[in-house]
Design brief:
This protein is of the alpha+beta class. The chain contains 11 helices and 5 strands; from the N terminus they run ααββααβααααααββα. The chain has 2 domains: about 45 residues; about 180 residues, 3-Layer(aba) Sandwich (Glutaredoxin), CATH 3.40.30. The chain starts with a helix and ends with a helix.
Length: about 240
């Protein structure tokens, strides 16, 4: 009697059929395991509950931040605030644009109530051809009390000016649309003073061995992950310690 006819009589599956079934089961199990790993990873990265005191970065082995050099950055908030958040950033850096989405919340919840002072340092990376002109645009907007609006506009329109051969015209258009005096803004863009401010900010980063952007510090504590969950958790811990 042939093997096929014998299986029809006995009802037993063929070895090939059993092998295929095992492969489907193994494949399904591997897919489920991979899916659980992805979900777990996302939860670990975003869950503030896992950023408890024992999981957060501390000031251990970190030298004090040279607070007198905060003058090299753009300073926002009460000079006597108990906590200082410092950011080294590059306007052409996509990760910096992602972190900048947290700024409004930081201002509203901590800077405006006087709990935190925010200091922004320019760290234009050398591989980004338009990072220095963008930093100059923000500094020149600061001269007309519009640093934050220009800072936000630069990150919002990052894709528009990053690859431009000459982004100056775009920056002047941004300034005009924000209500700045265009001629004063364009004169400022050519000043040696602004170049010097950005150079000194970059030199500070070099002295502190800050090489990547965004680098975010709460007082002298560098965050391991530049996201809101960790930033908020470290700020709250330091505020409680300051009381």
């Amino acid at each position: 009697m042939g093997e096929a006819k014998n299986r029809q009589k006995t009802g037993k599956p063929s070895p090939l059929s059993r092998k295929r079934r095992r492969q489907r089961l193994i494949g399904g199990s591997l897919f489920a395991a991979a899916l659980l790993a992805v979900i777990g990873g996302v939860f670990w990265l975003t869950s503030p509950s896992l950023s408890g005191p024992t999981a957060l970065p501390t000031a251990e082995d970190q030298p004090p931040f040279p607070a007198e050099r905060d003058r090299l950055g753009v300073r926002i908030g009460d000079p006597d605030a108990p906590v200082v958040v410092r950011e080294f950033a590059d306007y052409q850096c996509p990760a910096c644009a992602d972190f900048a989405a947290n700024h409004d919340r930081l201002m509203e919840e901590y800077v405006e109530p006087g709990k935190v002072r925010f200091v922004f340092f320019d760290l234009p990376l050398r591989q980004h051809q338009n990072a220095v002109p963008a930093a100059k645009a923000a500094r020149c907007a600061e001269d007309q009390d519009a640093w934050k609006p220009m800072h936000d506009r630069l990150f919002e329109r990052q894709n528009d000016w990053s690859s431009a051969d000459n982004p100056q015209r775009l920056f002047s258009d941004y300034a005009a649309s924000l209500g700045l005096e265009r001629r004063a803004f364009e004169r400022c863009m050519g000043l040696d003073r602004v170049e010097r401010e950005i150079r000194e900010s970059r030199n500070l980063a070099r002295d502190l061995r800050v090489t990547s952007t965004p680098t975010v510090m709460v007082d002298n504590i560098p965050l391991r992950r530049a996201n809101w969950a960790q930033l908020e958790a470290v700020i709250e811990r330091e505020l409680n310690a300051a009381q």
